[in-house]
Amino acid sequence: MSDGAEVPAVFTLPDTALTRCGRPFFVPDFADPCSYSVHLLVRICRLGRSIPERFAYRYYDAMTVGVLFSAGGLWSECRAKGLPWELSVGFDGAACMGELVSTGDGAAEWPAAIRLEEDCETVVTGVPLEAADGVDRQIARISRFYTLRQGDLLYAGCIGHPLPARIGTQLTGWMDGRQVLSFKIK
Q1: pTM to 2 decimals?
Q2: Which top CATH class is 15-184?
Q3: Would you list the domain boundaries of the chain?
């Protein structure tokens, strides 16, 4: 880009990829291996395009813990062939979201800690590196290319490394000590 602005690394998912809290995730037959990553998920609350970073906090009103599943073999195959890899993360049910929690007045209400448990054992904990000002920055960058609409979801701030998805595992997500996500991998 001529103005020196950084082009965001973004991929979009179809609405069929979204699974609401409590519904199980079914590992598809083409997802071998299947893994997941934990994210801070932010809900967009108003229409906006070319949003300045200093006003980005006005464009989201809730957040939660999100889990994004990926089909590792398909991802590797697409990357090796130079193809888009959205199929490996955008398949039906691949994006799980917890119960949304109001952000109040924006960045002042960021979670102190996000935690994910597998069968009651903590496997991921922390605060996303891209939290607070990073989400505002992401919204400003993305809105240069896409009009953000009320209800859009931004999976931001990955926490930790991808983990293997094991059938029969119960995943439970916590934000500031409040359980916001719980589902089983089948």
Answers
A1: 0.87
A2: alpha beta
A3: 15-184
